[in-house]
Backbone:
């Protein structure tokens, strides 16, 4: 069975601190995709990144970076020099390819509060 | 380009009533998904349309839920009769249908918050 675990329910940091959001996944698929979404107070889920299981390269986009490690089944998300606008709920998700339907399996989300 | 839109944004109904949620996907997206987040838990898959056909409805909780996508454009999700445990946020997502499924990224709408009293 597929599963995504986001053990951190809520994290509070002071502006300019670095913060890492953890994501651990379980799947038996050899081909799968991992995602991070941001849910700001307005409610919509904003796509941040997609990673496929064959690409273990870390990714950096501005202040955001992602560390994908198949050996530990983790796909962690780091925000460098956090800002108040980063305050949101962040969801990690997993999608398996072979089944023909690409439903996402989500974690429970991590609420990030960045304090000024 | 307009994103995924959902209507209404909020709905408050009494137990036993009927509610219909609507989702308009991104233009040209053949895939349409419904998800639900209940009581701060994880967002759970409900069903997947490819155009007007139901590809996977394994997440639909029971027969009080009916989803349609006539014409392969917008979709509706009807709950009849609503129960207290149906309260939550219902998200719709859409994605392009491509031969290379690695490009299948789902884009989500803002959700409909349903409260059943």
Residues:
């Amino acid at each position: 069975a597929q599963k995504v675990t986001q053990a951190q329910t809520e994290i509070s940091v002071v502006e300019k601190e670095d913060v890492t959001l953890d994501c651990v996944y379980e799947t038996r698929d050899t081909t799968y995709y991992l995602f991070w979404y941001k849910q700001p107070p307005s409610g919509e889920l904003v796509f941040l990144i997609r990673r496929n299981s064959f690409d273990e390269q870390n990714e950096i986009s501005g202040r955001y970076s992602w560390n994908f490690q198949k050996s530990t089944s983790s796909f962690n998300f780091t925000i460098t020099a956090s800002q108040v606008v980063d305050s949101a709920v962040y969801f990690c998700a997993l999608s398996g390819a072979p089944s023909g339907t690409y439903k996402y399996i989500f974690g429970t989300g991590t609420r990030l509060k960045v304090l000024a | 380009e307009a994103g995924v839109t959902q209507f209404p944004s909020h709905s408050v109904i009494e137990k036993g009533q009927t509610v219909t949620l609507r989702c308009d996907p991104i233009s040209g997206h053949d895939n349409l998904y419904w998800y639900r987040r209940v009581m701060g838990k994880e967002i759970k898959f409900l069903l997947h349309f490819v155009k007007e056909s139901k590809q996977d409805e394994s997440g639909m909780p029971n027969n009080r839920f009916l989803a349609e996508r006539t014409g392969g454009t917008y979709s509706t999700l009807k709950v009849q009769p609503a129960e207290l445990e149906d309260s939550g946020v219902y998200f719709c997502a859409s994605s392009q249908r491509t031969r290379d499924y690695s490009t299948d990224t789902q884009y989500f709408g803002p959700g409909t918050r349903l409260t059943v009293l």
Q: What stands out?
A: The CA atoms of residues 13 and 40 of chain B lie 20 Å apart. Chain B has a mean pLDDT of 91.
